[in-house]
Amino acid sequence: MAVLIVVGLARSGKDSVADYLAERHGFSKYVLSDVLAEELERRNEIASKENMNLLGDELRAKHGMAVIAERLLKKIREKGNLAIVGPRSIEEILAIRKKFPEAKIIEVRAAPEKRFERRSPLDPVEEKKFFERDSNDLEKKGLRKVLNKKDFLIENRGDLKGLHLKIESLVQNI
Fold first, then answer.
1. Long-range Cβ pairs for the range 13-19 (8 Å, 24+)
2. What are the two backbone dihedrals, phi and then psi, of residue 124, each rounded to the nearest 5 degrees?
3. How many Cα neighbours within 13 Å face the side chain of 84?
4. 8, 113, 158, 170: which could join 12 in a potential S-S bond, CB 3.0 to 4.6 Å?
């Protein structure tokens, strides 16, 4: 069983990596932000990136930095390969590794301009606002510490085919 924790800044390609692992290698994909989207839906609020950020901050302040990962882990029942997408803090990584000690961290990295081009309708339209999330994730939530603990790095600089080749190479090494 392989457990891969896929991390990176917004729109770096984390979901593309996890989707490929699911489609081509049978991984089950779990996304931390889905916990936030479900909670916002329960509250009858829009699951925008801004609302998810605010809710995540609220939950972490009330229940600790690992709360989102802990809620997600309660949903995992599979015994096969897993791709867990989007932890932002060391505490979330520790919670995942408590359940899955063999879990490996994969950082997906992309150039800022590429990431801004890839934004979704849920993302801020203004470039300044889009990149404000980076400093919040890196410093306030602790993503920088997570990225420093990575086991593997995927540079997502080209097209999807190039990304898939890099994923295949990585899969051969785990």
1. 13/108, 13/110, 13/118, 13/154, 13/156, 13/163, 14/85, 14/86, 14/108, 15/85, 16/108, 16/156, 16/160, 16/163, 17/83, 17/106, 17/108, 17/154, 17/156, 17/163, 17/167, 18/83, 18/85
2. -60, 145
3. 31
4. 8
DSSP 39-61: HHHHTT----HHHHHHHHHHHHH
Closest CA to 50 of 40, 42, 60: 40
Q: What is the pLDDT of residues 140-150, one digit of tens each?
A: 888 999 999 99
Could you tell me which CATH class the domain 3-32+79-172 is placed in? alpha beta
Beta-carbon contacts of 126 under 8 Å, excluding residues fewer than 6 positions away, are: none
pLDDT, one tens digit per residue, over 44-64 is 999 988 899 899 999 999 999
Domain boundaries, the chain: 3-32+79-172
Burial class of residue 163 (count of CB atoms within 10 Å of its CB; 0-12, 13-18, 19+): buried
Distance CA 48, CA 5 (A): 23
Helix (H) or strand (E) holding 107: strand 104-109
Dist. CA 59–CA 70, nearest whole Å: 12
To which residue do tokens 């932002």 refer? 88
* pTM greater than 0.85: yes
